[in-house]
Structure formats: C-alpha cells, structure tokens
C-alpha cells in the first residue's frame, strides 16, 4: 500500500522505473526459488510422471520394452496376491497385500490417534517435570525405524526378553516367535509402530491443544462443567484441526508401511504372507521379479487410493478450521 | 536510477553465482574423466570383480587368492567390490550398462540372468584358450550351461547338505548308531527328547525340504525342466512326515528355537541335529569354536537325495575387458587359483584335480545324488510362494495338499511365462 501512495506522488518516469524494479525483484526471487524448484521437478514431479508413463508398459530393466495400454491395471484387478474379493486377512493361500495393509491401517490409525491424544493431554497438564515427559514420549520417534525393528527382532525372539517377562507373569515357559508366526507377525509390527509414532502424534496434538484459548475453559469452569464435559464438549471438538492433520498423516503413514515388514521378513513378506504389505509387494514386483511396469501400476493405484482417502477425510473434517 | 542499477547488479550477481556453481560441477566431472584417461594410458588394466561375502574368512581368502593372481599377472589389477544385497546391486549395474567385469553367479538366479542376456557366453574363448572342462564335476558345470550347451561361467566351489550332529548330546541320550534313514532319525530324536536333550532344527524352507522330497521319490520339476511335479503323493508324504517331526516336538524350527538359522541353533546348543552344508565348518570355527560337532551323511528314505549349492564366476556381456576377465576367470576356477581359494576358505572345490580341505569326505560322498539348487527363469517368486505356502500348511491354515497345489500352479505359470 505504501508503495502505491508513493508512486502516485512521483513523476511517470519514476513510476516506470519502479515497475521495472518490481519485475527485477521478482526475477531475483524466482532465481532463488529456481534451484530447489529444479530439484523438486527433477527428483519428485518427473519420477511421478515417469512412473505413470511406464505403468502402461511391460518394462524390464533389461530386454524388450513393450506397450501394453491398460493391461497392467487389468492384471492388477485380478491379481490375488495384491487384492481379493471378498477380503482375506490372515488367510492361508490368498496373500492379498492390499487387505493386509487395510487391516494394518484400520488398527494402527485409531490406536495411534488415541494414544497420541492421551499423551498430549497428560503432558499438557500442569504437572511436575512435564518437559521431561514430553521429551521422553517423543524420543522413540527420533530413532530410526530400521534400528528399532532390528532391536525388536531380538526382544520378540522366541528366547527374547518379552517371552521371558511373559513366562514370569504366566508362570510357565512362553516361547512365541512373535515375528516367526503368521498369527502374530503383522500385529507385532503394529505394536511397534504405534509405540514409535505416537510421540509424533502427541506433538501435533499438543500444538493444537495449546492454541485453544483459555477463556473458553474459564467460562466452562464458571458454569461448573465437569472435567469429562469440558473434554467432550470443548477440548475434543476444538481439536478438529489436530484430528484432521493427525488422521491424514497417520493414514498415509500406515498405507505406506514398508520398512518394518521388509526387515522382519527379509523382504519376503513372510511368514505365510502375513507381513506382505502393498508397498512391499510393489518392491518385490520391481526389484525381485523385474516387472517394473507392473510395479509402477501398483504405485499409481496406491497413490490414487491415498489421494482419495485424504479427500474423503477432508470432507469429513470440513475445512479443518475453527472460529473461536 | 541508482536503485535500478543496484537491482541489475544483484541479478547479475545471482546469475554469476549460478554460472559459477554449474562451472564447478562441470569442471569436477571433467577432472574425473581426465583422471581415467591417465590410468588407461598405462599398461596395467584394472578389472572389477563383484562378490558377496558371507564371512570375514571368505573375504580374506578372496583377497589372498586375488593377490596371488596379481603377482603372476602384473598387467592386470583386480578391484574387488562386495555387494549387499547382491542380486539387487548387480541388476542395477547391469541396467546401467556398467557391470563389473567378473562376478559371482548363484546357480538359482542363473537362469534369469542368462535369459536376460547379461552374461558373456564363453565357448569361443574356451576353445581358443584350450581351457579344460573335464576336471569340473559335470553336474556343477551343467548348472551354468543353457539348453543349447553354451557355457556362461565356471563353478568356483560347491556344497551339498549333510547331517551335522552334536556328539555329546547324542551320547547323553544313548544314541550310539548315527541315524541314516528317516525312521532311524525319528527313533534317535525320540531318545534325545526322552533324555531331555535338544531337538533337531528343521527349516520350513524349500531349499532344505526339497532334499527330503527327493529322498521320498518326489521332486519339483521334471528332468527336462518343462513341467512342475510338485503336487505328487511322494512330496505330500515327505512334507507330512517333516511336519510330524516338528509337531511332535522331535524337531523345532529356527524361529521356535530363536535362532537366525539352524547353524546358530547348533552353535548355541539349542539343537542336537541339523541339516546344513559345508559352510557350517567356517561358521562354527569362527563363532562357536568351543562347541563340538560332527558331520554325518544326509539321511535317506525311499532313496538317497540331496541338494547341491554352487556359485560360478561369470563375465559380463557389457564388460570392456573381457580377455583380461577371462584370464582371471580361468585362474580362479583353474587348479592353481582354486587350490589357494579352497585351502584358505575351506570350501569344497568344484574340480576333481584339487584336493578338498581335510575332513570334508562326508560332503564329497553326497556328490553323486546332489541335484543343483536351480529351476528356471522367474522362479525366485515361485520359491518365495513355496516357502509361504509351506509355512501356512505347517501352521495348519491349509492342508499340505492345498499348499502343494498352489506351489504347483505358481511353478506352472512361471514355466509358461518363461518360455
């Protein structure tokens, strides 16, 4: 605004040069943006576009490349290893990566959100040493998931610490190979992931919690509202932006589940297909089986699914903005 | 006016900086290329050898062997690179058309790599160099031939499976005669169990169970590798028997024992009997030198049956130094190099004219009936399916017959696609 008023007062020549300066300033700005933008285009937008492109081909790293049209997508619909109808979770022969991922997401997202919220409420309370608790709960999120999984393999081993503790509690020897049986392998990864990522969820919830104005609580206190009523009628609804953000983040994270499944099963998705997730199946199709076009098609479908779910969530949560 | 000049200056400065950055990067690349040119102008050729290494002993032995080669061939220098994970690392290098000149090829993915055309056929060079093939064990060399008989590599060593036992445990249970048949094995394991001694370690994995299928008169593919023969009664019987040992507690899986593999279970005294290959020797010597063990012949049932695991040295089709690579290849798989290699690493030689390390006679006696761990192109996925199906059947989620049917289907599909 100040520039405009200043421009009015000066001569037309001066105004012209000012416009020129603006253009130049913009140019400088773009020049600075150009470098990261170049990386973004080269390493993000281009590969995404290229993946969509090769999903229409029979694309091997070596040998012939053949145009297939939509054949990869048609094959995917009938690929029992990727998905089946009706759904098979923990089924024997139908190793459907899609349903494993869906099952994983359905369990992990609510657990993660509830735990994250509970932790956030706990460390938001005015208690002694809450900074310590905040740091302590967030700590697992800082550790690399590969390292945590590697350690968990020892802890959940049939002769591991967890079984030793369970043996003490139950009074008889427990020797469950948690990652070695299809009935517990994926569930163990679920537990592991809920634990490691709930700290991050706590952090997001905490940030939203602290943005809720205190006068709302004061008014409620004056009205004599109970603690539960304050939580259910004020805190929880006012956390809407937090819910949206955490839910989207958690769902996307769950649908992409790969590293733990990969490490636990040495890339094979075992035992008995139980840790075969959608992204792991994609990886196997590309790297082990060398069907790059088909793997790209899986990636595109996965992208579409995540995109759709995010849209639906956005609709469900409204615009995720709240007026106080 | 001053302002605009300064603005222009600023823009020029930014672009100058950009040009500088680009220039430095380009200069760096130029320096690199000139570096390789300088190396080429000398008489010494450097070739690259890619391998995986399963132990420190293996790496040290390989380096010793290569040093011995370089001593006798001053014009060739060998750069050795270790890849982990190996097949993925190699495929990336093949795809980039910059593969190592000479490298390990496992007999199992060999059909895939041969089909993809990344391996150099060796027949013309064999004829020209008069490199004798006769000293190689025929079955091992055959693992690196295609259907037309073209050779794509020479086996560097090999190993069948055998039965490794903890003699102290057997003695403690009063097992005096070493079991040689399935029923004797079950009896011995029963005695061990009653005496409170550890069970056998059995792996639910095709690369162990297939040996038992062979022993029961079953198999995976027919002799010409054109059809799957997985859903046979013989295989069903073998799997059922194998599972019965596990279910009755005579044996346990490595997961149940809490070991990474059955060799570890033997070393940690969690298992009394295991079925593994010659690699157990160096592992036990390195990791569990105080635990005693003995190697006994593989058990048999209706007939003898065993698996043979072998790895070749092969040359890349895209190699730029094929003749030097072939010189190294014939050294490593020739009598001289193989002697240095097997003496140091303790593996079994793939040539009859190289004396095996002492104490390996039991393994060598398995040679006549050991069949190569090898199927057809596209079978890595089939073996994964097989392992998952066998696990599902073991957990009681489906019948053995259903599991074998699914494996049969997967194998048939892979054969059809590979044709």
Supply the key terms:
heterodimer; A: 324 residues; mainly alpha; MetI-like fold; 2 domains; 2 strands; B: 419 residues; alpha/beta; D-Maltodextrin-Binding Protein, domain 2; 10-stranded mixed beta sheet
- Assign the CATH topology of the largest domain in chain B: D-Maltodextrin-Binding Protein, domain 2
Structural class determined from secondary elements of chain A: mainly alpha
Cα distance spanning the termini of chain A: 30 Å
Contiguous low-pLDDT stretches of chain B (5 residues minimum) are 1-7, 22-41
SSE order of chain A:
HHEEHHHHHHHHHHHH
- At CATH's second level, what is the architecture of the largest domain in chain A? Orthogonal Bundle
Which segments of chain A are poorly predicted (pLDDT under 50) over 5 or more consecutive residues? 1-7
Any idea what the CATH architecture of the largest domain in chain B is?
Answer: 3-Layer(aba) Sandwich
CATH class categorisation of the largest domain in chain A: Mainly Alpha
Shape of chain A: flat
Tell me the name of the CATH class of the largest domain in chain B: Alpha Beta
Helix fraction of chain B by DSSP (H/I, runs of at least 4): 40-55%
The sequence of SSEs of chain B as H and E is HEHEHEHHHEHHEHHEHHEHEEHHHEHH
Instruction: Give the full name of the CATH homologous superfamily of the largest domain in chain A.
Output: MetI-like
For the biggest sheet of chain B, the summary is: 10 strands, mixed
Classify the oligomer: heterodimer
Tell me the domain tally of chain B.
2
| Average predicted local confidence, pLDDT of chain A | 85
Greatest interface: A-B, 40 and 42 residues
Q: What Rg of chain B, in angstroms, do the CA atoms define?
A: 26 Å
Q: Indicate the structural class of chain B.
A: alpha/beta
């Amino acid at each position: 605004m100040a520039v405009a008023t200043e421009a009015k007062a000066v001569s037309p020549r001066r105004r012209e040069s000012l416009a020129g300066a603006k253009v130049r300033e913009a140019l400088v700005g773009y020049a600075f943006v150009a470098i990261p933008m170049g990386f973004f285009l080269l390493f993000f937008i281009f590969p995404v576009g290229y993946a969509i492109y090769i999903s229409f081909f029979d694309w091997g790293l070596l040998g012939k490349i053949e145009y297939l049209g939509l054949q990869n997508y048609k094959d995917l619909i009938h690929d029992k290893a990727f998905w089946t109808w009706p759904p098979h979770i923990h089924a024997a022969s139908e190793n459907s990566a899609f349903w494993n991922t869906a099952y994983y997401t359905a369990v992990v997202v609510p657990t993660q959100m509830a735990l994250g919220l509970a932790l956030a409420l706990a460390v938001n309370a005015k208690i002694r040493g809450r900074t310590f608790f905040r740091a302590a709960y967030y700590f697992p999120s800082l550790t690399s998931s590969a390292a945590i999984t590697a350690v968990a393999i020892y802890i959940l081993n049939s002769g591991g610490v967890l079984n030793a503790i369970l043996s003490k509690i139950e009074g008889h020897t427990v020797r469950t190979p948690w990652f070695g049986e299809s009935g517990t392998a994926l569930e163990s990864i679920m537990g592991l992931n809920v634990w490691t990522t709930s700290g991050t969820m706590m952090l997001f919830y905490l940030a939203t919690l602290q943005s809720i104005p205190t006068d709302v609580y004061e008014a409620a206190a004056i009205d004599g509202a109970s603690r539960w009523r304050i939580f259910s009628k004020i805190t929880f609804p006012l956390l809407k932006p937090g819910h949206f953000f955490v839910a989207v983040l958690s769902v996307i994270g769950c649908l992409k589940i790969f590293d733990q499944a990969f490490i636990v099963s040495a890339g094979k998705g075992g035992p008995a297909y139980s840790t075969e997730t959608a992204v792991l199946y994609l990886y196997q199709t590309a790297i082990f089986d060398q069907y790059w076009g088909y793997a790209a098609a899986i990636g595109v479908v996965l992208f579409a699914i995540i995109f759709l779910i995010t849209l639906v969530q956005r609709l469900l949560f409204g615009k995720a903005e709240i007026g106080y | 006016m001053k302002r605009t000049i300064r603005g222009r200056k600023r823009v020029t400065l930014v672009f100058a900086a950009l040009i500088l950055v680009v220039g430095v990067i380009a200069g760096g690349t130029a320096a690199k290329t000139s570096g390789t040119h300088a190396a080429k102008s000398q008489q010494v050729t450097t070739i690259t050898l890619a391998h995986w290494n399963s132990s420190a002993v293996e790496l040290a032995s390989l380096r010793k062997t290569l040093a011995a080669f370089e001593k006798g061939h001053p014009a060739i220098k060998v750069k050795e690179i270790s890849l982990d994970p190996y097949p993925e690392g190699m495929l990336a290098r093949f795809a980039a058309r910059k593969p190592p000149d000479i490298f390990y090829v496992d007999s199992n993915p060999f059909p895939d790599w041969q089909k993809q055309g990344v391996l150099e056929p060796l027949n013309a060079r064999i004829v020209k160099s008069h490199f004798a093939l006769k000293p190689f064990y025929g079955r091992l060399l055959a693992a690196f031939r295609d259907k037309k008989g073209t050779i794509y590599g020479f086996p560097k060593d090999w190993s069948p499976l055998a039965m490794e036992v903890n003699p102290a445990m057997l003695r403690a249970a009063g097992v005096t005669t070493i079991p040689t048949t399935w029923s004797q094995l079950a009896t011995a394991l029963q005695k061990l169990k009653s005496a409170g001694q550890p069970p056998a370690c059995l792996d639910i994995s095709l690369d162990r169970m297939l040996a038992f299928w062979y022993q029961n008169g079953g198999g995976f593919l027919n002799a010409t590798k054109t059809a799957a023969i997985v859903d046979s009664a013989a295989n069903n019987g073998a799997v059922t028997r194998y599972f019965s040992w596990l279910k009755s507690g005579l044996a346990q899986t490595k997961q149940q024992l809490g070991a990474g593999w059955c060799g570890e279970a033997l070393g940690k005294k969690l298992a009394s009997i295991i079925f593994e290959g010659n690699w157990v020797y160096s592992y036990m010597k390195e990791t569990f030198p105080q635990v005693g063990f003995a190697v006994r012949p593989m058990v048999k049932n209706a007939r003898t049956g065993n698996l043979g695991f072998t790895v070749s040295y092969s040359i890349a089709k895209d190699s730029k130094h094929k003749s030097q690579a072939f010189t190294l290849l014939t050294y490593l798989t020739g009598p001289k190099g193989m002697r240095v290699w097997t003496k140091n690493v303790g593996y079994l030689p793939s040539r009859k004219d190289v004396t095996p390390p002492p104490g390996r006679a039991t393994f060598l006696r398995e040679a006549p009936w050991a069949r190569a761990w090898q199927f057809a192109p596209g079978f890595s996925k089939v073996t994964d399916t097989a392992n998952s199906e066998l696990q599902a059947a073991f957990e009681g989620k489906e019948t053995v017959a259903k599991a074998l049917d699914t494996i049969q289907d997967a194998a048939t599909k892979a054969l059809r696609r590979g044709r």
